[in-house]
Amino acid sequence: MPIKQSYTDVLIIGAGPSGFMAATWLARCGIPFRIIDKRSNEIFAGQADGLQSRTLEIFKSFSEASFDFATLDQGWKVANHITEMCFWSPDANGKLVRNSRVPDSAPGISRFTECVIHQGNVEKWFEESIDNFSSGTVKVERPILPISIKVNENEADPQGYAVDVLVTKLDSESAKPEQVGKVANGLFRAFDGDQEKFYHDLESGKNEDDFEMIHAKYVIGSDGAHSWVRRQLGIDMEGEHTDYVWGVLDMTPITNFPDIRSRCAIHSKDSGSVMVIPRENDLVRFYIQLKEVERDPETKNDKSQFNGNVEDKAAKSKGRVDRSKITPESILKQAQEIFKPYTMEMTDLRWYTGYQIGQRVSPSFSAHNRVFISGDACHTHSPKAGQGMNVSMQDTYNLGFKLALVCKGLAKQDILSTYESERLKVARDLIAYDHKLSRLFSGKPMIPNSDVMDGVDLDEFHRTYREGSHFASGTISDYENSILVSKDNGLPVDADGRTMSKIATNIPIGRRLYSDPIIAQADGKPIHLGDRLASDGRFRVLLFAGDVKNNHQNMELLHKFQDSLDSQKNFLKKYTPVNAFADSVIEVLTIHACDRHDVELYDFPDFTHPLDFKRRCDYWKLYTGVGSTYHEGDIDIYETYGIDKQKGAILVIRPDSHVAQVNEFSVDGLNKVNAYFDQFMIPQLDNVLPKKEADVNDIDRFVKPRLAI
Amino acid sequence: MPIKQSYTDVLIIGAGPSGFMAATWLARCGIPFRIIDKRSNEIFAGQADGLQSRTLEIFKSFSEASFDFATLDQGWKVANHITEMCFWSPDANGKLVRNSRVPDSAPGISRFTECVIHQGNVEKWFEESIDNFSSGTVKVERPILPISIKVNENEADPQGYAVDVLVTKLDSESAKPEQVGKVANGLFRAFDGDQEKFYHDLESGKNEDDFEMIHAKYVIGSDGAHSWVRRQLGIDMEGEHTDYVWGVLDMTPITNFPDIRSRCAIHSKDSGSVMVIPRENDLVRFYIQLKEVERDPETKNDKSQFNGNVEDKAAKSKGRVDRSKITPESILKQAQEIFKPYTMEMTDLRWYTGYQIGQRVSPSFSAHNRVFISGDACHTHSPKAGQGMNVSMQDTYNLGFKLALVCKGLAKQDILSTYESERLKVARDLIAYDHKLSRLFSGKPMIPNSDVMDGVDLDEFHRTYREGSHFASGTISDYENSILVSKDNGLPVDADGRTMSKIATNIPIGRRLYSDPIIAQADGKPIHLGDRLASDGRFRVLLFAGDVKNNHQNMELLHKFQDSLDSQKNFLKKYTPVNAFADSVIEVLTIHACDRHDVELYDFPDFTHPLDFKRRCDYWKLYTGVGSTYHEGDIDIYETYGIDKQKGAILVIRPDSHVAQVNEFSVDGLNKVNAYFDQFMIPQLDNVLPKKEADVNDIDRFVKPRLAI
C-alpha cells in the first residue's frame, strides 16, 4: 500500500510559542496549514513565563479583531503585572541591602508593561485562538515525528508544493517527557526522535499506516533548541556556553524579605546571585546561582544536540556537575545563603530545573525561501531577561503575515527573504545583550568603600539592565531598509538609532508604530490606534489629513484622493482581487486634526465612509487625532507622532504594525505609496475570487475582516 | 410510586438576567441551589440590551476574583460602548436638526460607561460564570414548570426547608416560543404553563415520573412580568398602562443620517419619536413610535397576565391595534417618516417587536422572608432608558449575598427583610422616572419661535434625560438606615440626597463605594479599590490609617488594633468559623496615606500581612492611597473620598460594595464596627467547619477566596 500523500500550504513543525504564533497568523488569514509536534502532551508547569510589552501588544492585536473572547489578550488580565525592579547588594559592611528601585518597564514605551505567567497558559490561549480563527478546522497534531525533509529547489512557482516532509505517528509513551518524582521538573531529556529507526521501519514495510508524506509549499521549523529542521538544513549554531550553573524554583516562599513581590536582582557578597520573579497566583520564580563550573574543552565546539540543561552538560563534562545534587532542596539551600540575613523557606513547589546555557545564534534562518526556522531553533540564551518566549513569538509574528501574503498570491515570494534579514539582527542584539547582562549578574560584586574592590561594578549592572529594558520590551526592534521598509531616502539616524523623517519627527521608520488614542468621527468613541491595526494580514495606509477645517487645501486634497483610490492604476484597486471587499488587502484610514464637533462625517469623501456590496456603511475609517474625550481626558496623536497639524502626513503600516513608509500628505506622497506596493505586490486586476470566498462573512462583515475576503 | 423528593438551600425559578444574578452569587459563595426555567431554550436575538455603569461594576466584581476568564466582564470588552447622546428635533421651520449633544454617561460617576449588547450574550456569560463558580455542578434545569408552592410559616429554623415547590418536566415542544416567519421576533405569547392540567395529571397518577417535590429553605421568583410566583403569593402589580404603541427593530440601517452610531432621541414635528441605540457588530436598535392608541377601559384594571406586547393588548382591546400590521416593514415605514429628510433603509434584520407597556410596580417583594420576587416580576416599564435588565440584576445582586450569609448560618434571617426595603424604593424611583421620561419622549414637541407652541417642552425633556442619567447609571441607588446600613447618627442629607459624615465628606453612606486606584505596598502595583472588593460574599473593614509616617499616633493605633482583631470578643474572630481562613467572613484592609517608598511592609502590624495555616503570607491587605505610579499617573483616594490624611477613617463595606458605616479612625471607631456586626451576625466561636471545607482551595487559596472557606 502506498504511503498516504497530503498537501498543505504551510507545515509548522513544533507547537511551542513560536510555532503557535505562526499558526495563529495563518489561521487568522485563512491559509491552509498544519502544525505537528512530537510530544504527546502540553506543558503544565515551568518553562518560560515572561510576557514583554511588545508581545502583549501583539496578543492584543489578534484579540481585538475577534468578537470571540477566548483569545490571547487574556494574558494581560490574568498574568502578574510586575511593577518594580529592586536591586539588592551588600553594603560596605557586607550586609544585604536594597540598593535602588526602578520601574520594571520603562514608562512611555507601550500601553502594556511586563507581566509573567506560566507558559502552559499561553499555549492554551494559542490553541483557543487557532481553533477560533480556523473555525475549528486546525488542531495541533501530536505526537507526530518528522522523519525526512526534501526541498525541490527547482520549483519556481511560489504556489508549488516544493517541500516534502515524511512524518510518522508516534505511540504516546515514547513521546512523553520523563519526570522525576511528583513535582514537575525540567531535568528531563527531551525526546529527540530516532528518525533512523523509523526510516528503517518504513523501508521494511513495517507500520506503513503510521506514515504520511506531507507536500507543503512552505515549512517552518519551530522545534526548539535541538531543532531537527535546523540540523536537516545543515545549519550550526554559533556562540559559546557559560561557566555558570543556575537552579530554578517555582514555589511559594515563606520569607521576611520585603521585596518578594517585586522583581529583584540580588548580588550577595560571597554566595552568588538570585533573580526573583513574582508570578501569578502568589507563586514566585527564583533563578539561583548554584556554583562555578570549569569549562570542559570537549563540549566547547560540540555540534550535537546540547539542550542546555544540566543533565546533558553533566553527561558530557566528565561528571563535574552531579545531576543528583540538583534537587529543589539543594537549590533552596543556596538561595538561603544568598538571602541572608533574610529567611527563606519553601512551600507549594510547582517546578524546578537546573541549567547552564550560553549564548548561541544560528547564522541563517532559512533555506531557499521555502524552509524557515524560528525561536529556540535560532537562538538560545539565558532566561533571566525574560526574552526567550517573546523573541521566539516575535520571530514568527514577523514571518507569518509574509507567508500569508505569498500563499494568497498577493505578494511575491521575495518578501520572504526579509524574514532572515529582519530577525537575525534582533537575535544577534539579543545574544549580545544577554551575554553582557548575564555575566554582570553572575559575577561577584565589587563593594564600594570596602576591601572588595574587584568584581562586577554594580552600577554598570544596573545601567545595563535599565538601558536594556527598552530592548527587552521588544518595542524597539528595528527593521532595516528593504522592499518592505522604505528608509532609503537619506534619512538621518539619531543617537538612539532611530531613523526618522521631518514629516513625523517621532515615528521611527522600521519600528512598530507606538499606539495612542484617536476618536472615531462617527460615534465619538476613543480607541487606541493600535486596535485599528489588528493583525488580520492587511496593510494600512494612514492619511493624517491635518486640520481640514481651517486648511481647506487639505480637505480638497482628500477629495482628490478619491479619484486616485478609485483608479485601477493605483495600489488600492490594483492589488485587491476584483470581487473582494475593497479594504481586504490594504485599508485606508483617515485621521484628521479637527475637533470632532467642528466637522461632519459627510463633509469627507466617500472612501472615509465607504459602502459595501449591500450598501452598508463602514463608519470606522474616519477619526480625529485631536480633542477632548468625555471620560478619558484630552488626546493629541499629532503631537505624539510629531506630525504638523497643518501639513499632515501619509504612513504605510505593515500587517505587523511596523512603519514601512512616511510620506508627505500630498499627491506625490500618495504616489510614493504606489511605488512602495509596486515593489512586491502582485496585481489582482484579473483575480476573481471563487464566489464562496467573496460571500463569506456576509452578516458578520465587521466581526472578522481578514486578508482578501 | 411516591414522587421524587429533593432538598436544596435555594430554588431559583426563572433563568433570565435576574435569576442568573442570584445564581451567580450563590454559586460564588458555595451555597447549594437549583435554578429552573420553563422555556426549553435560551434567547438568541432581541430583548434587553443596555448595560449600565453599575451593572458593569458588578460584572467586574465577579470576574476579578476568578482566575478563569470565561466570566462576566466580557461585557465590557465586546459590547458597544455608547459615547454620545444626540438630541434631534424640528427647527423653527420644522426641519429635523441636531439640537444638542451630551455625554451618554455622566463623566465621573464610574470607571464604566453605558454599553449595549444582546441579552443572549449576557445570559451565556452568566451560565459560564455559574459553571465556573460551582465547579460544573449547577446548570439551568429546563424546561421545568412549577406547579404549586407552599410555605410553612411556622418553620422557625432559618435552616429549615420551609418551602415546598412541586415541579414537572415539560416536553420541549410546549416550552418553545412560537416564532412568526424567519426573523426572530418578540410578538409571541410566552408560554404561561397550564398548572391546573399538570396538577390534574398528577392527581390521576399520569406521568408521575415527570414530577418532583423540591424542598427549599428559600425561593426566588425571577420569572418575569407574568410571574407565576408573584401570583401564587397573591401580589398584584400597581400602576398603569400607556396609550403609546412602539415598534422595535434590530437591523443594519442604510442611511445618510450622520449620528446613527450615537444614541439619539429624535422628536419629529408630526410623525412621532425615535430612539436610536447603536449596538455591537454595527447593528442598530430603533425604538419607533407607531401611533397613539386610546386607552381601553376594560384593560385598565386587568389583573391577568398582561405581558406588555401588542398581541395581548390587541386581544383585549377590541382589535384597536391590528397585530397583522405590526411588521418590520410597517415599523420601518414609520421610521422613514420620522427621519425625513434623511433616508432610512434596512438590511440584516435580526429581530423586531411591538410593545405598549406602562409603569407598574409590585407593592411587596417577598413573603415570610422565605419567598422573594425580583426583576420584571416586581416592576415593568418602558425599555427606552435601558433599565430593565439592569435593575432586575441589581435586585438579586442585593438579595443573593444576604441569602448566602443566612444559608451559611453566619447571619440572622432578619437581614432578608432589607431586600424589600432597599429594592422597593429603587423600583418606585425607576417607575416615576420612566413615567416622566417616556411621556416627554412620546409627546409631540413644542417648537420654539414657531406656531407650534403647545406640546412637549424639549428643554424639559433634555433636562429630565440628563438629570436622570445618574439614576439610570445605577450608581446612586441609596439604601436607607437598617441593620445593614448605619445612617442613624443624625447625619445631614445634602441637596443630592446623599447622607455623608464629616469623616469622609465624599462617601455617601448607603450607596455603593465609588472606586479609585490604590497602590499595593508589597509590589507597587496600582489596583482599583473596587477590584479588592470582589463579590465573594465577604464584608470588608477598610482602615484608612492616614499618614502613619508623620503621624505616629496613627501607626501606634494600628498596632493597638492587632490586639482587638485577635480577641474573640471582637468581630473578626467572633463571626468567623474557628477553622476557616481568618478573612473568610470579614476582610480587613489597610490603606495608608504615605509615599510607599517611605514606609516598609514590616513596619506595619501582622494583620496587614497575615500568614495562613501554611505560613504563606497574604501580601494584599496593605495599600497606600496616595502617591505616584510609574505608568498611570498620580493617585489620591483620600482626596477622592474626602478623608483627612491626618485623621483617617474606618469604613465598613457590605458584600455588595455598599457603604454600611463610616467611623473615625480610633479605638472607638473600631468598637462601632463591633456594634454594627453584633446587630445581625451569629457568633461562630463554636463552629468548626467540616474538614473538607476548611482544606478546600489549599494551593489555590489566593485564586478563589470565598465566604467562610
UniProtKB/TrEMBL annotation, chains A, B:
Residues 8-301, 321-431 form the FAD-binding domain. GO terms for molecular function: FAD binding; oxidoreductase activity, acting on paired donors, with incorporation or reduction of molecular oxygen, NAD(P)H as one donor, and incorporation of one atom of oxygen. Gene3D superfamilies: 3.40.30.20, D-Amino Acid Oxidase, subunit A, domain 2, FAD/NAD(P)-binding domain. Residues 478-684 form the Phenol hydroxylase-like C-terminal dimerisation domain. Pfam families: FAD_binding_3 (PF01494), Phe_hydrox_dim (PF07976). It comes from Candida maltosa (strain Xu316). Residues 310-326 have a biased composition (Basic and acidic residues). Keywords: FAD, Flavoprotein, Oxidoreductase. The keyword Metal-binding does not apply. It comes from the Eukaryota. Belongs to the PheA/TfdB FAD monooxygenase family. This is Phenol hydroxylase, putative.
